[in-house]
Amino acid sequence: MGEMVQKNEQACDDVRQRCSAMRHLGTGPISDAMEQLGMPRQVVTGMTFVSNDPTMAFVGPAYTVRQANKSRAEPHDRDLTRQRQASSQLAQPGDVIVIDVAGRAEYGSWGENQALMAQSRGIVGLVVHGSVRDREWIRQTGFPVLCRSFSPVSSKWELETVAMNEPIAIDGVAIVPGDIIYADADGFIVIPQDQVDTVFDRALEIHRMEEDKRNALYGHGRP
């Protein structure tokens, strides 16, 4: 049993290292690779980075969180503590936290303190299908956050965390824990975890061909 756990952990580490090495590709070659391979179009657009840096990108296995309207009376701090567990305890270094709040824009489901916690633990980025708050403070941390919108109202007053590390869907795109999230200024793509190597290998070929075309056009690479 111990040997099996060790092998699984090593496999997860290998995936995270491969993700880090592929960060330079961009969502364009990833999307083209999946289209060429005949895979479903697992793309979500209409998101925005907290930072205005157009070069910001992140990639890693998904750790999912789902929030919904509070269905029962409970102390707001209890749910806040549970949601914070994703960034402070449960998600692993190299992971991407993905929070589904069904696009609700009224409440900020993430703030500065959570960004600092996640950053300190090596979480590589966050996707929120909803709003965040503390926008300027998060921007100053340099932690990559992709979201729908912004709101100063904390989600703890109206929403509760109903699931963690379970399958979710954003805009009809299914996300299973461990699927690879590849995000940049154009949006994000979900790569099924059992297709990671196939997609990355094809995307790397596409990226190299595009670089060759740029070199031919500009003479010495990009302007």
From TrEMBL:
Q: Where does substrate bind?
A: R133
Sorted keywords for this record are: Magnesium, Metal-binding
Question: Basic and acidic residues bias located where?
Answer: 71-82
Which cofactors are named for this entry? Answer: Mg(2+); a divalent metal cation
InterPro entries linked: RraA/RraA-like, RraA/RraA-like_sf
Residues binding Mg(2+), per UniProt? D134
Q: Name one Pfam family in it.
A: RraA-like
Q: Which PANTHER family match?
A: 4-HYDROXY-4-METHYL-2-OXOGLUTARATE ALDOLASE 3-RELATED
- SUPFAM superfamilies annotated for this entry? RraA-like
Q: What is this protein called?
A: Putative 4-hydroxy-4-methyl-2-oxoglutarate aldolase
Recorded hits in CDD domains, A to Z, give:
RraA_family
Species classification: Bacteria, Pseudomonadati, Pseudomonadota, Alphaproteobacteria, Hyphomicrobiales
Give the region (Disordered) as residue ranges: 69-89
Q: GO: which molecular function terms?
A: metal ion binding
Source organism of this protein record: Microvirga brassicacearum
